[in-house]
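#lab-general

N.A. 3:47 PM
ok so I finally got the sequence cleaned up, no stray characters, all 137 residues accounted for. can someone with queue access submit it? mine expired

B.Y. 3:52 PM
send it over

N.A. 3:53 PM
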Amino acid sequence: MHADIRELWHWHALEELEHKSVTWDVYELIGTDGPERGRAAPLVVATVLPAVVFGWVYLLVQQGVWRRPRDLREGYRLLFGRGQFLRRVLGRMPVFGHPRFHPDRHDTRELEQHWREILFGDTGALAEQLRRPVREA
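B.Y. 4:20 PM
back already:
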């Protein structure tokens, strides 16, 4: 993965951690409840899973590697393999239906600080971009 793209993903993950509770709090404010979230979970999976698989297949075709068995196996392993992306995400879905669940119950302050330092500290990966003046269009 290109370093710029990796930095963008790291920044995006940090940003998601920083506002992880906002959407949840809005859902609770407008009156959703555990059973409603439980009914929505399969719809989320049915929407996200095909999008992820489609995106993967699109990238394979775009990169011209869709005929390489090694690349197909590696991609499949990264998405669906034991302990990998989709299994980790999908395996955590039942947690959201628990009546006492709230994102703030998962303390991520240390993780956030760690990544702020890596990305924005004096020698952080994105520190230099913050110092550059924005160019006029």
